[in-house]
Amino acid sequence: MADPNLNESNRIDPQMEAGPDPAAEAAGDPDPFLVLQKLQQENVDLKDKHLRVLADMENLRRRTEKEVADAKLYGVASFARDMLTFADNLRRMVENVPPELRANASAGVATLVEGLELTERDFLSRLARYGVKKLEPQGTKFDANKHEALFEVPDETLPNGTIVQVVEDGYAIGERVLRPAKVGISRGGPKA
C-alpha cells in the first residue's frame, strides 16, 4: 500500500537510488556534476566579461569628459591666436605716443591715449575669461617650450640663459602655448 503522505513530487525515482546509469552515460547524458562545474565556469567567465565591459565604459566616460573639457578650453585657440595681433597693435599704439606728447597733450589726445589703454586692458581681460593668459618671462630662465630666443646679450652679472628683454609677448591657453614669447637672453654669466 502506498504511503498517503508521499505525493508525486516527494517520491524517489528508483533510477536515482541506483546511481548513474551506464547505459544513459553511453547514450550521451552528461554527468550532472560536470554540467554544474561547466555552468559555474561559464558564470565566472560572464562575470569577468561583465566587469571588463563596466571598466571599459568607465574609461570611455572619463576619456569623453576630458575631451569635452579640452574642447571647451582649447576650442577658441585658433580664434584667440588670430586676436593676439590685435592686442599687439593696441600695445604698439600706446607705446608709440612719445612721453613729451603725453605730458603736454591736449585733453583730446590724453583721452585718446587713455581710451587705447582701456581698450587693451578690456580686450586682455576678455581673452582671460576664455583661459588665454599673457606670459611674463622677463627675468626668468629661458624655456624653449614657451620662449623663442631671437638674440643673446653679453651680461656677466646674470646667469646664462636668463631672459633680459621681451621683444614680443607670448600667450598661453590653459597649459598650451598659443604663441611663444620672443625674447633676448643673457650670455656669459654663471650657469643657472
Describe the structure in your own words:
With 192 residues, this protein is of the alpha+beta class. Helices cover 52% and strands 16% of the residues. Helix 4 runs antiparallel to helix 6. It is elongated, with a radius of gyration of 39 Å. The model has no long low-confidence stretch (mean pLDDT 84).
What would a concise description of this structure say?
This protein is an alpha+beta fold and 192 residues long.
Q: How would you sum up the major sheet?
A: 3 strands, antiparallel
CATH architecture of the domain at 135-192: Roll
Low-confidence residue ranges: none
Number of helices: 6
The tally of beta strands, per DSSP, is 6
Using only C-alpha atoms, the radius of gyration works out to 39 Å
Mean residue pLDDT: 84
CATH topology of the domain at 135-192: Nucleotide Exchange Factor Grpe, Chain A, domain 2
What are its keywords?
alpha+beta; three-stranded mixed β-sheet; Nucleotide Exchange Factor Grpe, Chain A, domain 2; 6 strands; 192 residues; 6 helices
Write the layout of secondary structure elements.
Layout: H1 14-18, H2 22-26, H3 32-74, H4 77-95, H5 99-103, H6 107-129, E1 132-134, E2 147-154, E3 163-168, E4 171-173, E5 176-179, E6 181-187
Parallel strand pairs: 2-6
Antiparallel strand pairs: 1-4, 3-6, 4-5
Helix pairs in contact: 4-6
